[in-house]
Amino acid sequence: MIKRFFIKAEGIVQGVGFRPFVYNNAMEYSLKGWVNNNSQGVFIDAEGEEDNLYSFLNTIEKNPPPLSKVDAVSYKELEVNGFSTFTIRESEREEGRITLISPDVSTCSDCLNDIKDEKNRRYGYPFTNCTNCGPRFTIIKSIPYDRDKTTMGKFKMCPDCLDEYKDPTNRRFHAQPNACPDCGPHLFVIDKDGNKVKTGDNDSLAFTRDMLKQGKIFAVKGLGGFHLCCDAKNGDAIKELRNRKRREDKPFAVMVKDVSTLSEYCQINDIEKETLEGIRKPILILKRKSRFSLPEDLAPGQTTLGAMLPYTPLHYLLFKDGLDILVMTSANISSLPLEYDNDKAFESLKGIVDYFLFHDRDIHISIDDSVARYLHGKVRLIRRARGYVPDPYNFEIKEPILAIGPNMKNTFAINKEGYIFVSQFNGDLENLETINHYKRNIKHLSSIFSFTPKYIAVDYHPNYESTKYGEELSDNPVKIYHHHAHIVSCMVENGIDENVIGISFDGTGYGADGKIWGSEFLICGRKNFDRAAHLEYIPLQGGDRSVIEPCRMAISYIMNSLPDDEAYEKVKQLYGKKGSALLTIIKNRINCSDNCSMGRLFDAAASLIGIRDIINYEGQAAIELEAKIKPGISELYPYKIEGDVIKAADIIKGILRDRENLVDIGIISAKFHNTIIDIVLKVSCLLREKQGINKAALSGGVFQNAYLLSNCIDKLEEAGFEVFTQSLFPSNDGGIALGQIVTASLLINSK
Ligand code: ZN
Ligand code: ZN
Ligand code: FE
Predict the structure, then answer these.
(1) 490 CA to centre of ligand 3 in angstroms
(2) Domain range holding 466?
(3) What is the per-residue pLDDT for 751?
């Protein structure tokens, strides 16, 4: 029977090939009518056999184009009209409504086939893309999303490309970055002295592969910025890169030809494989195989490797002639933002690389590679950036709020029309360059979503650069506590809107008493919280220096755990004269602040066990402590809970005793971890008894520890808790902005 459906599909449906997709399916199901779209969604008026109409609907819901994100499909039946054809109508633009923008995603299989096919006009062309793949967010200068408002504006489409662009049945229909060798961007190679040594895509690529094989170091311009690149099998090249970059032991990420190559080095389960090969292509932190044959210098002291698959045609074309695994680490001078501009990259990287593989498609907004890890059944984002941003998060907030984010691993958030947009990772706001980069990204995200904030949400920490910026923007910003924001971020992601036991284990965070918190058990709703338990305050000597030098925390903990004479003897034995001097300083509370951070307790433990007294990158001590854990150990150290204070003195004494007795480091590390897990369980049970709350939400950077997170979830679930953790947004400070914006909206509305 012939029927007529009027269908509406909402979500990311513009600029992602939705109309050609609808057109082709309408042909497939012999439907007549039309399709068009505006910023509210795609509208389809379709007439045909009833069965076909339902199959058509099902395809739209279940198998939409890869870059689209269909939030809702609705339809109503109309009187049959007697259409004779199916047509694509021009898209409409409405004033005042935003257009959702797709993140930059990896090359699709059709485009890959194009570049592999010798007869195709895009054979070997490194900038091949279509509506299903390629650059988006990184090339958009302003809206509406049209070619002339992107960095592709300077390339005029050739007649062949224009034909594709105008053909509704073509997968390059309205693909704004559409290009081919005749009309699009090209590669060239510059040496470190600034000489152009190669031009042309093929020659540049062949030269690059050849030099990489000879151990040379390159800066490769990619999608969101530059990578530093060398052959990951070449230990000398890696050593040279470390020397030149002055990066002692922070792990390098690799890019690998394919999953089967990667599986020679790492264990990969099905979900990990799916993530690696999926369209977003994050760096995935994988467990190494026990026989690991790549140079140890890639990621010293680790049992994991960060790896990703190629995500642009340029990357694919590097993996030829015997190259199958490359170091691909963000090209920046330590702690400065990622390089993305040809001239600036040349100036700052010429002392590090031998050559630059440049191209002439500008990157307007730089974006780092996203980083994720599979833990306890889920792939969890650690850094949310390329491939994920600016995906919207469905959450209705009425007032326009800019949540300014934390100081470290900054992201910020804005809201509009029922969505929250959490920004890309902006880095640590510790230098002018990064702060300017952050401010530019706030302006850009606001402009592409036509967003003007009415309220500003900031962290309570008065010295955060982000807070200071928020105070510049507003006389009366809404202040949110750091650890509350962590837990709310987790609650929102899991759709929880009732009180939970929130456990925020973190490196830092300004507390309601002006001290630094970080081992928090909160009784917590989205709007308010009560602090229910935490570690005892320990003096943190020397501010940030004690973060870089975990031995300082270890000495504080020894002082706190032993009688004076024993403490002095122990410190002298472990840390020598310098340690004793430091102990005196701490005893006299010179330049000390109170701190109860769980991150610092992990640092102290790592130092006491003898793993590391000084770190070279954030979290290193804790990461190496976790890497040492000996499996199968169930013992733990004693500890005390007095009122709402958890006392770690007995843990410290236990570690010192074990170390004196030359107990295996792996066993001490396991016992330490088991103790923290036991604290989580015991305190949660005590709070459940008192409060009658059975939901536990875990967040904070310390929960990036795989052993800790997995065991906490298991133990809490065994004890009957409903446990909530994060995966879409990082549990580290990269997730803070989401919590800030939601809590701020509730505080504003109750004013
Ligand atoms: Zn494609
Ligand atoms: Zn062309
Ligand atoms: Fe934090």
Answers:
(1) 12
(2) 392-494+733-749
(3) 66
